[in-house]
């Protein structure tokens, strides 16, 4: 289940850091309290989406409304998040004051063996104790890059309990094909598609490398659906690895909750 939580922005012009996934994680944790253990929950989420301008301090948000996309195969988790979010007249994310307005559910894509994706949050391919290995740069066109994502995906799918051992064994067809022209263009313009990100897990600072680029994936449709719904790679529950499909069907969204629903209940 993939939803968009849409907020009215009370203080237009307020600033968030460029990478603010940990702020959103803290917000979700605060909203749910002890009702959900985020460290064991399989889900993913985007950064805050809206009209922004880049400033020295970070991203300045100037749109009337902003959106966070959240996705999980656990519908009960999504429904609880919606319920608890709308129990608050307003929420604070960094310096932004957000007023919950409505929730849209996205239409389920038709998953095929070949799918094209965009990264709307960085992909992490390693999550080990060693920060040195986690920060190692691996070029996306190498077999090692694809192999690490395959191993990560199979482990996560197996842990979910939703697939039989026979199904897991059948998911051997797997290859990620990055958009090479995009990678070359980014490099030529002296921009980055891979950066080091810092987060705190269990009181310890963790440094990991995240990658952001468009790609094509060859895999079983069930694998495609899993990574689209639960995130691709490591640390998806910390806001990494959320994907989108180019030319998404905006008309396929439907409102499933709004403030007006509560007012008329």
UniProtKB/TrEMBL annotation:
<dbReference type="InterPro" id="IPR049435">
    <property type="entry name" value="Cas_Cas6_C"/>
</dbReference>
<keyword id="KW-0051">Antiviral defense</keyword>
<dbReference type="InterPro" id="IPR045747">
    <property type="entry name" value="CRISPR-assoc_prot_Cas6_N_sf"/>
</dbReference>
<dbReference type="Pfam" id="PF01881">
    <property type="entry name" value="Cas_Cas6_C"/>
</dbReference>
<keyword id="KW-0694">RNA-binding</keyword>
<protein>
    <recommendedName>
        <fullName>CRISPR associated protein Cas6 C-terminal domain-containing protein</fullName>
    </recommendedName>
</protein>
<comment type="similarity">
    <text>Belongs to the CRISPR-associated protein Cas6/Cse3/CasE family.</text>
</comment>
<dbReference type="InterPro" id="IPR010156">
    <property type="entry name" value="CRISPR-assoc_prot_Cas6"/>
</dbReference>
<feature type="domain" description="CRISPR associated protein Cas6 C-terminal">
    <location>
        <begin position="108"/>
        <end position="245"/>
    </location>
</feature>
């Amino acid at each position: 289940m993939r939803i968009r939580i849409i907020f009215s922005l009370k203080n237009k012009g307020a600033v968030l850091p460029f990478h603010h996934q940990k702020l959103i994680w803290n917000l979700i944790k605060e909203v749910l309290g002890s009702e959900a253990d985020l460290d064991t929950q399989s889900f993913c989420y985007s950064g805050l989406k809206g009209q922004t301008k880049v400033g020295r301090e970070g991203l300045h948000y100037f749109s009337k409304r902003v959106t966070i996309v959240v996705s999980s195969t656990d519908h009960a988790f999504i429904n609880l998040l919606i319920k608890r979010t709308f129990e608050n007249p307003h929420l604070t994310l960094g310096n932004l004051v957000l007023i919950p307005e409505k929730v849209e559910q996205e239409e389920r894509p038709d998953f095929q063996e070949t799918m094209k994706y965009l990264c709307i949050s960085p992909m992490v391919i390693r999550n080990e104790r060693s920060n040195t290995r986690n920060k190692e740069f691996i070029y996306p066109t190498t077999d090692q890059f694809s192999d690490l994502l395959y191993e990560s995906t199979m482990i996560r799918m197996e842990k979910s309990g939703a697939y039989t051992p026979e199904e897991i064994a059948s998911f051997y067809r797997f290859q990620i094909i990055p958009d090479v022209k995009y990678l070359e263009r980014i490099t030529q313009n002296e921009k980055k598609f891979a950066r080091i990100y810092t987060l705190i897990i269990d009181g310890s600072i963790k440094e990991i490398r995240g990658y952001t680029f468009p790609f094509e994936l060859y895999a079983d449709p069930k694998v495609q659906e899993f990574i689209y719904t639960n995130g691709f790679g490591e640390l998806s529950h910390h806001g990494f690895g959320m994907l989108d499909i180019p030319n998404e069907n905006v008309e396929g969204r439907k409102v499933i909750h709004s403030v007006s629903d509560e007012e008329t209940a």
